[in-house]
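The aim of this short unit is practical: by the end, you should be able to scan a pair of folded records and say something sensible about each. We start with the first protein, listed as its amino acid sequence and then its structure tokens.
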Amino acid sequence: MLPTVVCCNYCSSLQKCLLFFCFLILIIPVKKMRTFKQFIISISTIIIACVTVVLSWAFIVKGLNITFPNDPRVQLESILYNPYLFIGKLINTFIEFDYLYVQFFGVFGWGETAAPYFAAIIFVILLVSNLVSEMKNNTSSENNVKQGIVLLFIGILSTVVIQSMLYLTWTQENGNVIYGLQGRYFIPIILIMMYSFYLLAPILKKINKQYIYILLIFIILLVSLDKVLRRFWLL
């Protein structure tokens, strides 16, 4: 268990928003532990250790005079006042901020010299094709599907937390996207997201293609509605 504690604490110390990675221990089956009591003790030890690292670091640096472009309290009030606008910014960041994807696959320098677009596109094709191939051969059990759901939830939660933290500190209230994001922030997240899709393969295979088409049409209409509302009603 010690290597797991060390890895989780390392992730927590790198980015506070990766604190949720400590909950990945929940995907470990209880039967892998000797007893249910040991399972609970292991989970509690890892979570407490990660929280302790984050709180300790926050206490150490609390005296530093760090100036942010925004007042986090004002930004939080804007979220509570108009959560729809905030959700729209979360979505628009991945739609309009295309440079984010290039950064994810690599940059040559301090973010100003990105890898060629064609290299990123080829990498995406290889990544997705490999995932689809592996999913076709996957015959996960019901327990593995539950693990996939936990992984997917942690991945989505970590993504939202990363964007929220940067919105509170770096993004102007009148901006349409979340500023300050870099593709490398999502490298740890994409690993567990891809594995979650692999574990969820038995469920995804059972989905009727017609439902997929309906979902895609719904997403298109929802994005279009979002554009119209923000264009004419300035929400």
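Turning to the second protein, read its sequence before its tokens, just as you did above.
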Amino acid sequence: MHHLQTLPMIDRPALLVVDMQNDFVRAGAPFEVPAARETIPSQQRLLGAFREHDLLIVFLQLVGIENDPYLRMQDKFTWVRGLTDDIKGCRPGHLRYYADIEAHRDCCAIIDELAPTADEVQLTKRGYGAFLGTALDSILRDRNIDGVIRAGSGKLHSQDKWNFCLTSA
């Protein structure tokens, strides 16, 4: 018989939804992660459970800007090409047509299927790291969060500095 590993007890969890934005999830988007679309139903269930129990949900969004400093790294990171002024990847307020939903949407916005409520935290980030240059660390500490579930198309990075349980969904 195969026994399941015992999971740590988490009293105050948070759900971190990372980069589930139109420019990452929608078909043909500049930063498209096709597998992200397959995770939408499970993320909807997670959101429903966290909302039902009034638990912390944080949405993290990559934001591109005009004359983005990341453009200097184009030769090292192919994804940076999406930030150029002709593509305007994840540029807040920039509307883009997405064929899979047959509509225009703000390319930086969280997808409609996972839309945050007014009382849920939304943080913008300038790179791949969710902790660097954001208030994520203080939000989690101020609320005594002892474990997080990461969902979405992106990664957290820098989570090794945390002493809580990290689970990916």
